[in-house]
Amino acid sequence: MAVWKSAFAALVLGALCQPALAQDSGTGTSDKQASQVTLTADNVNVLQDDNLVIAEGNVKAEHEGRVMTADKLTYNRATGKVRAEGNVVIVDPDGTQRFADEMETNADLATGYASDFSMRMADGSTASANLVQRESETRSRLDRVVYTSCQICEGETTPTWSIRARKAVFDDDEGMYTYRDAVFEVAGIPVLYLPWFAHPDPDAERRSGFMVPMVGSSSKTGVIYQQPYYWAISPYQDLTISPRVNSKVNPLLELDYRKRFYSGQVNFNMSFTNERDFDSDGEKFGDKEWRGHLFGQGRFAINKQWQWGFGVEKATDDLYTKRYDIDGENEQRGLYTNQPRFLLSQVYTQGQANNWYADASVLTFDSLRFDDTREDNIADVLPIGFAERSFDLGGYGFARANASTAFLDRATGTDSQRASFGADWSVQKVLPGGFLAEPFAETRYDHYELDDYPSTGQGNSVDRAFATGGVKLSYPLYRPGKSVDLLVEPIVMGAIGTNSPNQDDIPVEDGLFYELDVSSLFEANAQVGYDLYEGDNKVAAGISTVARWKSGVQISALAGRRWRSRSDPNFDKASNLNGTSSDWIGAFGVDFGGPLKLKTKVRLDEDSMELSRIDTSIDLNFNRVRASAQYYQIDAAVSQSNARQEGILLNSEVKVTDNYFLIYGLRRDMEGKRDIRHEIGVGYTDDCSRFELIFQRSEQVDRTLGPSDSILFRFTLASLGNLGTDTFD
User: Is the Cβ–Cβ distance between 523 and 438 less than 8 Å?
Assistant: First the structure.
């Protein structure tokens, strides 16, 4: 809608034409003015008695890339008014076109009018009005307004959607557009009447006002209507106030606050309500209480190298975010991310330069999971820190020195404090015959202080030191071809290390869920974290293959295995580091560019070669089909939960015609034989809109929340935003 206010500005061409008109008849030019205007016409007459300059017949005026054509152009030298009549067309440099039967304005553009006005913008949007009146330098009024962002092709008269209004006013000072008696139409059919409607000018500064409402339905809370109001408090802070009305439960108020400082910014999202607990059918139980949540984050620069920040996640009830469908539970709000159904609050500082890095954090956790008895066993990290300094040794490679610390505190269980100091070195060399060698070495010292240790119930101090040295050797074999290039690279890694430093006295905190795969197959220490370390002697061998076609298609594969000089009972079966040899592991990928991408990682039993684990993802974008799918299967023997796991995640969209499409989505726990999410729907899309009607079913059960059904209506309009929501189930 911002295009209305520039309609009269184009008529400045006429006011600037006076010198040229005074000099020539027929065709006149003037390069004496700072802003040159070129005017051509079949006839140009100067009426001295009436003080008028009239150009008639194929009138064309050009000024700084803007072109105006009309049948007649009249300039009153006494009043300064300019009038263009008959087939008035103005074309801007960006391609915007304005049409009118008649336009008039005074010399300073303060007042004027245009009749039978219409406009086609560069993005294809169109707008029209019977009459446009410029009442002052900052205020314009329009009668019988029609606006749409849909491109109307030749022969078409009805856009997918449009807004019609009896009156419209825009105010440049306030940067606001207001409408009276507005009707929203879809395919020419009125679907929504608004006696008053307003929105900010998209080109203006931020403005306070009502935003697009959200409407939905949930079996838990019933029919939902949420009306956000945006409050631009200042140029550097704002607040969105979003009251939500529910048909089954009490209203809820949601707030989003943002503020930018000289050195950083903060962002808070919170909600609260006064209500009882309720199940998936909206049946209430328990006492009425104040309930809510708070998610927030901030980040600030201390100087060019250092910054600090915080993240906060709190909820009054374990199921509050699920009951009210609150988003953002697993977003990253600092240096560390969280596991599902856990809330993480953190304060941190971080520094970095060309040759060093350091960070320190304090972390606290809250569990939202079913087993509340484990809450006291979750450790608060007070604090955790890491620092590293790198050294460029030139032809002798690179070296790093590092230090780390972690202080863990529990209400129930072992408290631990760890301090670690380490160093590592590596260099890459090309040997005769094309062999690529990478010698490496690393060492580390750890000191632990343990309180309330289970075996003694008293304090315990543990020290350990270890080192590993070895070499990674590969032999890249490259064969270029007319249609495909082939690279085959056998790789072997051998290392000698001190005896396993793992001890039963050291609690394992940071390596419980680790599993060896191709990403760490050739590492000196294949175990991540600090509490466990892969000592002793080890060998890893594998082969990598890459085929690249000239057309852009690429196929890659990597497979290998790892051996150890002796077994370490501190590694379990799931880690793939137990015993003296690992299972076979591999990765396979196919990339056809846009149409198809496939990635697969597998783990095969070392003895039977049976499939122990597979993780596959497919991205398809071919012709009328777009889909992404993930499939996983984990045998009980290698599962961290000691239970077999199998599932699939699918999102797809199939175009039936150029405009109509089908939607299908599935997230299924195949082992548990239940659909965590299952949806099917139909939709329509074109250049200016998107409509979706979706039926959704969830069989997920979490205490008092069980299976639920819903029907979602999603509605997106180009330039106006979204109507409807996809956040409610």
Answer: no
- When pLDDT is cut at 50, 70 and 90, the band that residue 511 belongs to is confident
Give the integer Cα–Cα distance in Å for 64 and 717: 34
**Around Cβ 92, how many Cβ atoms within 10 Å?**
18
How far is residue 605's CA from residue 581's CA, in Å, rounded to a whole number? Answer: 11
- Cis, bond preceding 476 (omega within 30 deg of 0): no
Number of domains making up the chain: 2
Give the DSSP letter string of 233-295.
Answer: EETTEEEEEEEEEESSS--EEEEEEEEE-SSEEEEEEEEEEEEEEE-TT--EEEEEEEEEEEE
Per-residue pLDDT reduced to its tens digit, 333-355: 999 988 888 999 999 999 999 99
Any domain includes 676? no
Q: Beta partners for 648?
A: 631, 668
Q: Is residue 245 part of a domain?
A: no
Within 116-257, where are the H helices? none
Of residues 204 and 67, the one with the higher pLDDT is: 67
CA distance 687 to 700: 37
CA 678 from chain centre, in angstroms, equals: 23
Q: Please classify residue 205 by burial: count the beta carbons closer than 10 Å to its beta carbon, then call 0-12 exposed, 13-18 middle and 19+ buried.
A: exposed
The residue type found at 31 is: D
Q: pTM for the full model?
A: 0.79
Q: Does some domain include residue 34?
A: yes
In angstroms, the CA 311 to CA 300 distance is 12
Average pLDDT over residues 566-588: 93
Contacts of 317 by beta carbon, 8 Å cutoff, 6+ apart: 277, 291, 323
What's the pLDDT score for residue 14? 37
C-alpha to C-alpha distance for 444 and 464, rounded to whole angstroms:
8
d(CA 120, CA 151): 9
Amino acid at 692: E
In a domain, 727, yes or no: no
Q: Of 531, 546, 561, which residue constitutes the final position of a domain?
A: 546
Q: Which two tokens stand for residue 400?
A: 């790093």
Give the SS3 label for residue 518: helix
- Indicate whether 17 pLDDT > 70: no
The pLDDT tens digits of the residues spanning 617-641 come to 999 998 899 999 999 999 999 988 8
Choose one of 207, 222, 253: the last residue of a domain: 207
Alpha carbon distance 417, 526 (integer Å): 24
d(CA 52, CA 82): 10
Considering only CA atoms, which of 659, 614, 605, 608 is closest in space to residue 633? 614
CATH number for the domain harbouring residue 94: 2.60.450.10
Give residue for tokens 């863990």. Answer: 408
308-313: long-range contacts, CB 8 A cutoff, minimum separation 24: 308/347, 308/348, 308/349, 308/350, 309/264, 309/334, 309/347, 309/348, 309/349, 309/350, 310/334, 310/345, 310/346, 310/347, 310/348, 311/344, 311/345, 311/346, 312/345, 313/338, 313/343, 313/344, 313/345, 313/366
Concatenate the DSSP letters of all residues of 421-490 into one string.
EEEEEE--EEPTTS-EEEEEEEEEEEEEEEES-TTTSS-EEEEEEEEEEEEEEE--EEE--SSEEEEEEE
Residue given tokens 């069989």 in the structure block: 699
DSSP 8-state symbol, 98? E
* Parent domain of 411: 375-383+390-546
- In terms of Cβ atoms closer than 10 Å to its own Cβ (0-12, 13-18, 19+), residue 321 is buried
Lowest-pLDDT range of 10-14, 502-506, 624-628: 10-14
